[in-house]
Amino acid sequence: MDDFLRAAEQLFSEKGYGQTAMEDIARLAEYGTGTIYRYFESKEALYGELLERKMAAYLEHLVAQYEAETTPRGKLRALLHGKVDFFARNREFMRIFVKEFVPECSTMAAALTPEARELRGRCLALLRDTIEAGIRSGDFRAMDPDLAVAAISGLGNELLLHCIRDLDGEGLGEAEGFMMAFIESGLASGDRP
What we know:
Elements (H helix, E strand, L loop, with lengths): L1 H14 L6 H8 L3 H7 L3 H25 L4 H18 L1 H11 L12 H24 L7 H21 L6 H16 L6
Helix pairs in contact: 1-2, 1-4, 1-6, 2-3, 4-5, 4-7, 5-7, 5-9, 6-8, 7-8, 8-9
């Protein structure tokens, strides 16, 4: 099963969901086409499993970095760095993620399983909890946490898209530095509106 998922990730990243056939995946995994259907009833089911597994790995990666920090500012940095670090290590999935979660690129959102949607929601909940803790501690100025999460998540996704579209997946470190400075200046407590 893992052979099929690895092959699918590579092909979905390179060719996109619509241009990838189950036969292509089986061939790249070095199995017969009939074998892939023993594990996955359809391309959509395979895609959903791939997204669910990768989102679970993403959440696990974020939680490990998040829990290592004690302050809201440290947790925010950990979440932002965790996102960039995960995608730097998972370039193929980064291309798929951007296609799924950046609205202008969404091609197959219907394939997301409820579990994958829930995992993505948990990733965003970590960010929301961090924003709320920062507001309570005075590290961050008072604001609507839901708007802050949408803005930070959107910024991160757009920067990933920029790194893929304009830099062929490179420049993630520079994007992370920019994003952190930009977000911290916007969240900083003080007399700013």
